[in-house]
Hints:
The structure holds 3 protein chains of 3 kinds.
Chain A: H1 3-14, E1 40-47, H2 48-56, H3 63-72, E2 75-84, H4 93-102, E3 108-116, E4 121-129, E5 135-144, E6 147-155, H5 159-168
Antiparallel strand pairs in A: 1-2, 2-6, 3-4, 4-5, 5-6
Helix pairs in contact in A: 3-5
Chain B: H1 19-29, H2 33-55, H3 58-74, H4 82-103, H5 127-138, H6 142-152, H7 158-165, H8 169-192
Helix pairs in contact in B: 1-2, 2-3, 2-4, 3-4, 4-6, 5-8, 6-8, 7-8
Chain C: H1 8-15, H2 25-35, H3 45-53, H4 57-113
Amino acid sequence: MNARHSFLYALLLLAPLASPAQSARLTLPDFSQLEHKATEMVDISLDASLLRLASRFMGQTTPEEKAAKEILAGIGGIYVRSFSFDSENAYSKADIDKVRRQLSAPGWSRLVTVRSHRERQDVDVYMRLGSKDDIDGMVIVAYGPRAFTIVNIVGSVDLEKLRQLEGKFGVPLLELGEK
Amino acid sequence: MYPGQTGTMEAPAAESAFEPEEANLVRARDGDTQAFAMLVRTHQRSVFSLALRLLRVPEESQELAQDVFLQLHRNLGRIESARHLHFWLRRTVSHRAIDRLRRRAREPFDAVESVPEIEMPHVDADPILERNLYQSVVELPPMARAVVLLRYQEDLDPTEIATMLELPINTVKSHLKRSLALLRWRCRALQDGESP
Amino acid sequence: MTERKPDLEEELRRALRPQDPGTDFTAAVMREVTRTPRPPSVGSFSAASRAIRSPSLRMSAALAASFIAAVGVVRWDRYVHEGFEAREQALEALRVASQNLNVVHRVVQESEKI
C-alpha cells in the first residue's frame, strides 16, 4: 500500500462509526425538472437485485466486464445522477447542498476534496464506515458551473480498482483524452 | 410514431424527396412485385450496411437484411408513406441487429484482427484515416455504434435516432459525444502507431 | 505551412457511406417474396375465423401448449432484455464513478509534484 493509500485509510480510522439504523443510501433530490435543459444526462438507480441481474449478464472475456463484475460483488446499490448543461447556473446549488447535508450525518467522512481547473469542477469523495469498521458506502459529489455528478454506492468498494476501471473500457483515461 | 407522421410530430420540409417512392409503395401494397423490387433496390444499401456494421459478420448481415425486406413485404399494409417506410426499415434492422447482438454470449471490444475484412468503398481523400475510422466505429459498443451509424451513415438527427431506438434524447447525445471523443483518440493512436 | 485538420464528422460520413450488398441481393429477396405469399388482408378474415371456431381437442391442447411456450418465450425475452439493460446501466454507473475518481487521482498526483 503506498503512502497515499495509507493516508486515506488513516482518515477512515478516525471517522465516527455509523449507527446501524442508518443506511449508506442517500435520498437524492428529484432532478426531473432539469432534464429538458441538460445536454447530457445519466440517471441510474440499481438496487441489489438489479445489480445481481446485471452481474449475471457480464462475461469474463473482456477486461472491463471482468473487473466490473468483481467490483459489483461487494456492492448493494449504485445510484448516479449526472447532468451537463450548455450554460452556467442551470442547476441550483441548493440541491447539491441537500446531498452534502446528509453526508454530515454520523459515519460519513470526507476523504478528499480537489479542485480541477481542467474539468472546471470541484470533486468531494466521502466514505462511510459500518458498525464493524468496514466501508459500507461511498459518495462522489462533483460540481462545476455547467455540470454536476452525484454517485452513491452502497456497500464495500475498492477505490483503486474502481479508479482503474476507466482505462479498461477503451475510453481513454483523462490524461490522454482530448478536452 | 415516426418523424413526419401526420398530427403528431412536426412535418419535415423535404417531402418531395419521397414522391417517386410513394407511387412505388402504393403499387407494391397492391401486390405489384416489380414495384416491391424497386423499393428493395432503393433501400438495400442502407439496410445491408447497417446490418453489416452492427453484426460485423457479412453472411449474417446479408441474411438479416433479406429478412428485414421479407418482414417489410409481410407488413406492407401497415406502411403509411415513403417517409414511414424509410423510418421503418432503419428502425427494424437496428432493433433486430441489436437483439441479435444481445443474444450472443459476448461482444468483443478489442482485437482489430477479429473484425472481418470488409471491402470499403473507394475513397480519394485519406484512405488510412477512413479505414481507421471505419474499424473504430465497428468496435464501438452496440448501442453507441447504432447511434453513430444512424447519425453518420443515415444522416438522422438525434431526435429521430432517439425515436427510432426508443432512447431518451440525452442518452443519444451522450453516446454521440463519447463516441466521437473515443474515435478521435483511437484514430490518432492508430495513426501514431501506438496500440489503443 | 499549416496542414488542414480533417473534419471528423465529414470523414465519418465518408467512411460510413452505405455499401452495396451485391448484385444478387434483390433477386434473393424476390425469390423468397414470390415463394411466400403475403398474409391475408382484412377482407379474408372469415376463412381464418372458421378454423378457430371449430378446433379438435388435440388442436386445443396443442394451442394451449403453444400459448404456454409463447408466454415462456416472452418472459424469457423480457428477462434477457432487462438483464442487458441492467448490465449497460451498471457499466455506465461504474464508468462515471471511475472517471470522477481519476479526476481526483490526477489532481492529487499533480499537487504532489509541486
